[in-house]
Amino acid sequence: MKAIALLIVLLLASFSAHAQFTVIDHANVAQNIRQLVQLELQFARQLEELTEARLQVESLTGHYGIGELLNGDIHRAARRYTPTSWRDTLRILEAGGLPGSVADVQAVYGERSEALAIIGADEYNALNPNAPNAQAFERRRDTNLASQAIAEATFDDTQARMTNYETLMRQIDASENAKSTADLQARIAAENGTSLADLIRLQSVQLQQVSAVEAQQLVDETNMKRQTQFQDFPFGELPTD
Q1: Torsion angle of the four alpha carbons 105, 109, 111, 113, in this order, in degrees rounded to the nearest 10
Q2: How far apart are CA 220 and CA 216, in angstroms?
Q3: How distant is the alpha carbon of residue 84 from its chain centre?
Q4: C-alpha–C-alpha distance, residues 188 and 44, integer Å
Q5: What is the pTM for the complete model shown?
Q6: Are 108 and 87 in contact (CB under 8 A)?
Q7: Mean pLDDT across the stretch 210-230?
Q8: What's the pLDDT tens digit per position in 120-165?
Q9: What angle do CA 211, 150, 86 make, to 5 degrees?
Q10: CA distances from 162 to 72, 74, 155, 159, 191 (A)
Q11: Does residue 7 contact residue 36 with C-beta atoms inside 8 Å?
Protein backbone atom coordinates (compact mmCIF):
# COMPACT_ATOMS: atom_id res chain seq x y z
CA MET A 1 0.00 0.00 0.00
CA LYS A 2 2.93 2.38 0.65
CA ALA A 3 4.09 1.83 -2.91
CA ILE A 4 0.61 2.76 -4.23
CA ALA A 5 0.51 5.93 -2.12
CA LEU A 6 3.95 6.96 -3.35
CA LEU A 7 2.88 6.33 -6.93
CA ILE A 8 -0.20 8.54 -6.44
CA VAL A 9 1.91 11.38 -5.01
CA LEU A 10 4.34 11.18 -7.92
CA LEU A 11 1.50 11.16 -10.43
CA LEU A 12 -0.16 14.20 -8.85
CA ALA A 13 3.16 16.04 -8.67
CA SER A 14 3.80 15.27 -12.33
CA PHE A 15 0.34 16.43 -13.30
CA SER A 16 0.76 19.66 -11.33
CA ALA A 17 4.11 20.38 -13.00
CA HIS A 18 2.71 19.87 -16.44
CA ALA A 19 -0.79 21.17 -15.92
CA GLN A 20 -0.17 24.17 -18.14
CA PHE A 21 0.74 21.87 -21.03
CA THR A 22 -1.53 18.79 -20.50
CA VAL A 23 -5.23 18.24 -19.99
CA ILE A 24 -5.68 15.71 -17.11
CA ASP A 25 -8.38 13.03 -17.25
CA HIS A 26 -9.06 12.74 -13.55
CA ALA A 27 -11.58 9.91 -13.98
CA ASN A 28 -9.04 7.80 -15.86
CA VAL A 29 -6.35 8.44 -13.25
CA ALA A 30 -8.73 7.43 -10.47
CA GLN A 31 -9.66 4.26 -12.34
CA ASN A 32 -5.99 3.37 -12.78
CA ILE A 33 -5.35 3.89 -9.09
CA ARG A 34 -8.29 1.66 -8.15
CA GLN A 35 -6.96 -1.06 -10.49
CA LEU A 36 -3.50 -0.84 -8.90
CA VAL A 37 -5.00 -1.15 -5.44
CA GLN A 38 -7.06 -4.15 -6.54
CA LEU A 39 -3.99 -5.83 -8.07
CA GLU A 40 -2.03 -5.36 -4.85
CA LEU A 41 -4.86 -6.90 -2.82
CA GLN A 42 -5.03 -9.85 -5.21
CA PHE A 43 -1.27 -10.32 -5.00
CA ALA A 44 -1.42 -10.29 -1.18
CA ARG A 45 -4.19 -12.92 -1.18
CA GLN A 46 -2.22 -15.13 -3.58
CA LEU A 47 0.86 -14.81 -1.39
CA GLU A 48 -1.18 -15.89 1.65
CA GLU A 49 -2.57 -18.86 -0.29
CA LEU A 50 0.91 -19.91 -1.37
CA THR A 51 2.18 -19.65 2.21
CA GLU A 52 -0.73 -21.73 3.48
CA ALA A 53 -0.16 -24.33 0.75
CA ARG A 54 3.52 -24.56 1.70
CA LEU A 55 2.62 -25.07 5.36
CA GLN A 56 0.12 -27.78 4.41
CA VAL A 57 2.74 -29.60 2.36
CA GLU A 58 5.21 -29.37 5.23
CA SER A 59 2.58 -30.70 7.64
CA LEU A 60 2.18 -33.78 5.46
CA THR A 61 5.80 -34.41 4.50
CA GLY A 62 7.96 -33.09 7.34
CA HIS A 63 10.33 -35.23 9.41
CA TYR A 64 9.96 -34.97 13.19
CA GLY A 65 12.15 -37.84 14.41
CA ILE A 66 9.22 -39.66 16.05
CA GLY A 67 10.58 -43.01 14.87
CA GLU A 68 13.62 -42.58 17.13
CA LEU A 69 11.51 -41.69 20.16
CA LEU A 70 12.27 -44.29 22.88
CA ASN A 71 14.02 -46.33 20.18
CA GLY A 72 17.70 -45.70 20.82
CA ASP A 73 20.39 -48.35 21.21
CA ILE A 74 19.56 -48.82 24.88
CA HIS A 75 15.85 -49.34 24.20
CA ARG A 76 16.50 -51.77 21.33
CA ALA A 77 18.91 -53.79 23.45
CA ALA A 78 16.44 -53.93 26.34
CA ARG A 79 13.82 -55.49 24.07
CA ARG A 80 16.21 -58.31 23.14
CA TYR A 81 16.50 -59.91 26.57
CA THR A 82 16.55 -63.53 25.40
CA PRO A 83 18.92 -65.45 23.12
CA THR A 84 17.90 -65.75 19.49
CA SER A 85 16.79 -69.41 19.72
CA TRP A 86 15.26 -71.72 22.31
CA ARG A 87 18.25 -74.07 22.18
CA ASP A 88 20.56 -71.17 23.01
CA THR A 89 18.19 -70.21 25.82
CA LEU A 90 18.46 -73.67 27.36
CA ARG A 91 22.26 -73.39 27.17
CA ILE A 92 22.34 -69.81 28.43
CA LEU A 93 24.61 -70.64 31.40
CA GLU A 94 27.28 -71.79 28.96
CA ALA A 95 27.19 -68.57 26.94
CA GLY A 96 29.62 -65.74 27.44
CA GLY A 97 29.82 -62.12 26.41
CA LEU A 98 26.06 -61.65 26.44
CA PRO A 99 24.55 -58.15 26.12
CA GLY A 100 23.18 -56.53 29.26
CA SER A 101 19.51 -57.54 29.02
CA VAL A 102 20.32 -61.16 28.09
CA ALA A 103 22.95 -61.29 30.84
CA ASP A 104 20.19 -60.35 33.30
CA VAL A 105 18.14 -63.37 32.21
CA GLN A 106 21.27 -65.51 32.46
CA ALA A 107 21.79 -64.29 36.02
CA VAL A 108 18.23 -65.18 37.05
CA TYR A 109 18.58 -68.58 35.38
CA GLY A 110 21.78 -69.23 37.34
CA GLU A 111 20.23 -68.08 40.62
CA ARG A 112 17.20 -70.32 40.23
CA SER A 113 19.36 -73.27 39.17
CA GLU A 114 21.53 -72.89 42.26
CA ALA A 115 18.60 -72.35 44.62
CA LEU A 116 16.57 -75.31 43.40
CA ALA A 117 19.56 -77.60 42.89
CA ILE A 118 17.65 -79.87 40.53
CA ILE A 119 19.72 -82.87 39.47
CA GLY A 120 20.86 -83.38 35.90
CA ALA A 121 20.84 -86.33 33.52
CA ASP A 122 24.00 -87.81 35.05
CA GLU A 123 22.30 -88.16 38.46
CA TYR A 124 18.86 -89.01 37.15
CA ASN A 125 20.28 -92.02 35.34
CA ALA A 126 23.82 -92.64 36.48
CA LEU A 127 24.05 -95.84 34.41
CA ASN A 128 23.26 -94.06 31.18
CA PRO A 129 22.92 -90.22 31.26
CA ASN A 130 22.24 -90.23 27.52
CA ALA A 131 19.20 -92.47 27.87
CA PRO A 132 15.91 -90.94 26.68
CA ASN A 133 14.44 -90.65 30.17
CA ALA A 134 17.52 -88.84 31.47
CA GLN A 135 17.62 -86.47 28.53
CA ALA A 136 13.88 -85.80 28.79
CA PHE A 137 14.22 -85.00 32.49
CA GLU A 138 17.16 -82.66 31.93
CA ARG A 139 15.35 -80.81 29.15
CA ARG A 140 12.32 -80.42 31.39
CA ARG A 141 14.58 -79.00 34.10
CA ASP A 142 16.28 -76.57 31.73
CA THR A 143 12.95 -75.51 30.23
CA ASN A 144 11.53 -74.79 33.66
CA LEU A 145 14.54 -72.72 34.69
CA ALA A 146 14.54 -70.79 31.41
CA SER A 147 10.82 -70.15 31.74
CA GLN A 148 11.25 -68.74 35.24
CA ALA A 149 14.06 -66.45 34.10
CA ILE A 150 12.20 -65.15 31.05
CA ALA A 151 8.95 -64.65 32.98
CA GLU A 152 10.78 -62.68 35.66
CA ALA A 153 12.57 -60.53 33.08
CA THR A 154 9.29 -59.82 31.30
CA PHE A 155 7.57 -58.88 34.54
CA ASP A 156 10.45 -56.59 35.54
CA ASP A 157 10.23 -54.88 32.15
CA THR A 158 6.54 -54.07 32.61
CA GLN A 159 7.17 -50.84 34.52
CA ALA A 160 9.59 -49.57 31.87
CA ARG A 161 7.08 -50.40 29.15
CA MET A 162 4.33 -48.48 30.99
CA THR A 163 6.68 -45.51 31.25
CA ASN A 164 7.28 -45.68 27.50
CA TYR A 165 3.54 -45.63 26.82
CA GLU A 166 3.04 -42.67 29.14
CA THR A 167 5.83 -40.79 27.37
CA LEU A 168 4.25 -41.46 23.99
CA MET A 169 0.83 -40.36 25.23
CA ARG A 170 2.27 -37.07 26.48
CA GLN A 171 3.58 -36.45 22.99
CA ILE A 172 0.03 -36.45 21.61
CA ASP A 173 -0.71 -32.96 22.91
CA ALA A 174 2.68 -31.77 21.67
CA SER A 175 2.07 -32.88 18.08
CA GLU A 176 2.60 -29.96 15.72
CA ASN A 177 0.49 -31.04 12.76
CA ALA A 178 -1.13 -33.95 10.93
CA LYS A 179 2.22 -35.48 9.89
CA SER A 180 3.69 -35.51 13.38
CA THR A 181 0.41 -36.92 14.71
CA ALA A 182 0.45 -39.68 12.09
CA ASP A 183 4.10 -40.45 12.91
CA LEU A 184 3.23 -40.65 16.61
CA GLN A 185 0.35 -43.02 15.90
CA ALA A 186 2.72 -45.22 13.90
CA ARG A 187 5.23 -45.15 16.76
CA ILE A 188 2.58 -46.20 19.28
CA ALA A 189 1.54 -49.00 16.93
CA ALA A 190 5.17 -50.14 16.78
CA GLU A 191 5.33 -50.14 20.59
CA ASN A 192 2.18 -52.26 20.60
CA GLY A 193 3.99 -54.63 18.25
CA THR A 194 6.87 -55.08 20.69
CA SER A 195 4.37 -55.75 23.49
CA LEU A 196 2.70 -58.36 21.31
CA ALA A 197 6.11 -59.92 20.63
CA ASP A 198 6.64 -60.23 24.40
CA LEU A 199 3.25 -61.89 24.76
CA ILE A 200 4.06 -64.35 21.97
CA ARG A 201 7.42 -65.06 23.63
CA LEU A 202 5.72 -65.88 26.95
CA GLN A 203 3.14 -68.06 25.24
CA SER A 204 5.92 -69.91 23.44
CA VAL A 205 7.73 -70.44 26.73
CA GLN A 206 4.56 -71.84 28.24
CA LEU A 207 4.18 -74.24 25.32
CA GLN A 208 7.79 -75.34 25.77
CA GLN A 209 7.08 -76.11 29.41
CA VAL A 210 4.00 -78.16 28.59
CA SER A 211 5.76 -80.06 25.81
CA ALA A 212 8.78 -80.81 28.05
CA VAL A 213 6.54 -82.29 30.73
CA GLU A 214 4.59 -84.31 28.19
CA ALA A 215 7.80 -85.53 26.55
CA GLN A 216 9.11 -86.87 29.84
CA GLN A 217 5.78 -88.50 30.59
CA LEU A 218 5.80 -90.17 27.19
CA VAL A 219 9.34 -91.46 27.71
CA ASP A 220 8.45 -92.79 31.19
CA GLU A 221 5.28 -94.45 29.88
CA THR A 222 7.25 -95.97 27.03
CA ASN A 223 9.82 -97.35 29.47
CA MET A 224 7.12 -98.80 31.70
CA LYS A 225 5.43 -100.39 28.72
CA ARG A 226 8.61 -101.95 27.47
CA GLN A 227 9.69 -103.08 30.93
CA THR A 228 6.71 -105.42 30.92
CA GLN A 229 8.17 -107.00 27.77
CA PHE A 230 11.92 -106.70 28.40
CA GLN A 231 13.56 -107.24 31.78
CA ASP A 232 17.26 -107.05 30.95
CA PHE A 233 17.95 -103.54 29.59
CA PRO A 234 19.47 -100.66 31.62
CA PHE A 235 17.06 -98.30 33.36
CA GLY A 236 15.86 -95.57 31.07
CA GLU A 237 17.43 -97.07 27.91
CA LEU A 238 14.84 -98.15 25.37
CA PRO A 239 15.54 -101.37 23.43
CA THR A 240 15.83 -100.78 19.71
CA ASP A 241 15.25 -104.31 18.50
Answers
A1: 180
A2: 6
A3: 18
A4: 42
A5: 0.69
A6: no
A7: 87
A8: 999 999 999 999 999 999 999 999 999 999 999 999 989 999 999 9
A9: 50
A10: 17, 16, 11, 5, 11
A11: yes
